[in-house]
Design a protein that fits this description.
It comes from Cyanobium gracile UHCC 0139. This protein is α+β, with helices and mostly antiparallel strands and 434 residues long. The protein is 20% helix and 23% strand. The chain contains 10 helices and 15 strands. The strands form 3 sheets. A 5-stranded antiparallel beta sheet has the order 3-2-1-4-5.
Length: 434
């Protein structure tokens, strides 16, 4: 078959027919035998850490020929020990040097090698022919402390969460109102936070330029704008007012606007109140109370859980508390005797005549003074409408201490006249205490 190139000459099969090599000149050395090329294997550890020279080998062969390849195997060298820091670095040469000495001189603005002013001896060095330079301190620079503090105040963030701020309405959109509160960006009040109840017309409710007091509900964002609320502030003020009414034991008028299986609901100072059926005078037909106005007192006021529980039945007690005051002479009936005193019914409310307030004499048994069901007159020394407590005192009606035990009828008969003297004593005690 014909090929594309020059065919190689075919070797004769008979060894006698192979061409004889050219004869070498007489007297010349025989040609050395050619060995096959060898590949030298270099390990990575040999490149990183050069091996130390081998120690003289002991007498005898240190290498053994390879039976397979006929080559001489590489000698086996012991592992070299790790180098110490003292062998790698000259530690004695850098002892006592500072970091500035190690870094060397730094070029200054004029191309010299002195380091910056105030950082070493080179601060006072100067070029040849020039007077020595003096290092400048912070006091040598122009610094206005008042201007610096004013700049801080000007750029300080305005409005933290829970803070009440004053502002002026400067604009509005369909979803809220913009109020200038003194920051680098106006505050934004969403439409739902513009007040209690439903607001249909923002322009009429918040005309431009209207002064307004709001509560910060979210601190400023990346643009410097804070979120404010008039509704949250109104709710806070309502809870504070309701707590004060509860503390004073006031009776308030509310209008029933709904009912459920457990009672009726009402509105008080913008807050949703609840009157249980058990606290209604007509609890059996509470659905018919919708639209009516009731006088109620407070059972529970909790702003954290938003619970406002009212009572119509307790309103009568609260109304009675409203007629009582410290220093007033009242008449009641002993309804209960306890180890610590008497409970006295004062017409819908109970007062406590403590054993320490019965008489100024020695009292071995409470029944030496009064019996259950007996009527008595006493002075009011403390009134706590929120806790429903009234403190009574008969010892102030005595002349000499213990008079109540030996002449109780005279003390009770002259109680009105003796009460005037007792009131003066109570006022004097209040002034000394306050």
């Amino acid at each position: 078959m014909a090929g594309t190139g020059n065919p190689a000459p075919r070797q004769p099969r008979n060894p006698a027919q192979r061409p004889t090599p050219p004869a070498r000149p007489s007297g010349s050395a025989p040609a050395p035998l050619r060995k096959p090329p060898q590949v030298l294997m270099i390990k990575k550890e040999d490149e990183v850490a050069p091996e130390p020279p081998l120690a003289p080998a002991a007498p005898g062969p240190s290498v053994a020929p390879s039976a397979a390849s006929g080559q001489v195997a590489a000698p086996v060298r012991p592992p070299s020990p790790p180098a110490e820091d003292g062998d790698r670095f000259d530690l004695e040469g850098i002892e006592g040097l500072t970091m500035a000495d190690l870094l060397g001189p730094a070029p200054d603005r004029r191309g010299g090698s002195a380091r910056s002013a105030g950082r070493g001896p080179a601060a006072s060095e100067a070029a040849p022919g020039e007077p020595p330079r003096q290092a400048r301190t912070v006091d040598d620079f122009d610094f206005d402390e008042e201007a610096f503090l004013a700049a801080l105040d000007e750029n300080a963030p305005v409005g933290t969460t829970g803070e009440v701020v004053q502002g002026v309405v400067i604009g509005m959109e369909s979803d809220g109102v913009y109020v200038d509160i003194g920051g680098k960006a106006p505050g934004f009040m969403p439409k739902s936070e513009c007040g209690l109840g439903v607001i249909t017309n923002l322009k009429e409710r918040f005309p431009k330029g209207l002064p307004i007091e709001v509560l910060v509900t979210r601190e400023q964002n990346a643009d410097g704008m804070v979120t404010i609320s008039a509704r949250a502030l109104a709710l806070r003020q309502s809870w504070e007012k309701v707590r004060q009414l509860e503390k004073e034991g006031k009776v308030v008028q509310v209008k029933v606007n709904g009912f459920n299986r457990g009672g009726v609901t009402c509105d008080l100072e913008g807050l949703r109140g609840f009157i249980p059926r058990s606290q209604l005078n007509e609890g059996e037909n509470h659905e018919a109370l919708v639209g009516q106005t009731l006088g109620v007192a407070f059972l529970e006021v909790n702003a954290e859980t938003r619970k406002l529980v009212l009572s119509e039945k307790r309103a009568a007690t609260a109304a009675r508390f409203a007629t009582l005051e410290v220093g007033q002479l009242v008449e009641g009936q002993v309804v209960s005797i306890k180890p610590y005193g008497f409970f006295v019914d004062l017409g819908g409310v109970s007062g406590l005549l403590h054993q320490s307030s019965i008489t100024g004499g020695a009292l071995r048994d409470l029944r030496e003074a009064f019996q259950q069901g007996e009527h008595l007159k006493a002075l009011i020394t403390a009134v706590d409408p929120a806790r429903g407590r009234i403190a009574l005192n008969t010892a102030l009606l005595e002349g000499p201490p213990g008079e109540l035990l030996i002449a109780k009828d005279i003390v009770m008969a002259e109680a009105e006249d003796r009460a005037h003297r007792a009131r003066s004593l109570l006022r004097q005690q209040e002034q000394d205490a306050g």
